[in-house]
Amino acid sequence: MNTDSRIYRPWPTALVIGLAAQILFLINLARPTKPVFDETHYVTAANYLLRLNGPLNIEHPLLGKEIIALGIILFGDNSFGWRFFSTIAATAVVMGVFAIGWLVIGRVRPAAFAALFAILNFTVFIQARIAMLDGFMAAFTVTGIAALIWGMQTPAEQPARLWRRLALAGVLFGLAVGAKWAAVPFVAFAVLAIMFVPADDAPALHRRRVTAVLLFGGLSLTAYFITFAPAFFYASDPLTLATLLPFQATMYAQQTQALPPHTYQSAWWTWPLDIRPIWYLYEPVDGAVRGILLVGNPAIMWGGLVAVVACVFAAYQAKSRAAGVMAGLWIAAYLPWVIIPKKIGFFYYYYLPSIFLCLALAAAFDHFGKGRMRQADAWFAGLAGVLFLYFYPIISAEALPNDQAFLHWMWFFSWR
What we know:
Blueprint (H helix, E strand, L loop, with lengths): L10 H16 L12 H12 L12 H13 L3 H27 L2 H13 L1 H6 L5 H20 L6 H21 L4 H13 L12 H18 L14 H16 L21 E8 L2 E7 L3 H20 L3 H19 L11 H18 L7 H20 L3 E2 L16
Antiparallel strand pairs: 1-2, 2-3
Helix pairs in contact: 1-4, 1-5, 2-3, 3-4, 3-7, 4-5, 4-7, 4-14, 5-14, 5-15, 7-8, 8-10, 9-10, 12-13, 12-14, 13-14
């Protein structure tokens, strides 16, 4: 990891990128005005939570629905209110990606391109504009990883900073799990990192690892359980201190129960290949036929896989720690889905891994982009941008000319 370049201030660049992302995500956010895909579950649950009626949608923790409810309080029970904080979450993802790129690689250019790739990757754009739990989970996870890396890079002579940064990371990871349990593996990976990352990469952790794990783990658990506070005030079946832990077992049983087949279900091995996307919307609404196809930007999805392999090679052959970290993030995000006890999978489970592809791309271009290849990252961003514009009508719910217009974008039969 390059620490010499820390004399430069990356945050003006990060703020500009974050502002651009937020503006992009907000454009026509209220379109369509009806609930889309799983919004039917989570918006209903958020309204139920606002009234403190009782438990609903109990297979997931409360935080994501609490955030949606806050949007309803601030902006009304309408499509803008449901989705506003999803745009904030996606912007946090973009800025978190920038922070990870900067902290690991140590240069603004690859960090900025990683963030740009995240903006142009359709998955981030689409999840920014729908009231689902995955966007909040990803925002807390990505920023939590950035905080953890920040903490690990604390100089040995500044232990107070180490504790503050690890405390921040612990809270963020706890909130990630409070949004959706899909973040649980990252809490385990974070603990392993705290315990076993070499002292050269984590100087302030030397001889403080057990204390650091206790602080991180304790704050993660505390932040997670605090998110259940509203459930103690339900009019029907309120939680109590005695039922809080047993309720976690109930949630687990709900999440692992057998489900009937679904039109858009897909196997874990198809997700990196962009084989089976999901139509979040395709119907006449707000005076026109509109569609939202959750599909990954082909350049980033497929190019990102090449980048992961390239990063593994660079980590092994050239001992590049930065490349190894970026490949490791994608592997850590994807591997649990290979073994997780889910009977039915969906492409949106790949949301976190699709984000880390952007970091792998930036690291691969930074490592291999020498000589004639030094502008390869810019050319690749241009390709991703062209594809973003090409697919924009069916990832943003623009008005389409007729009900067969979607065929223009169907590169493969499995996309229909």
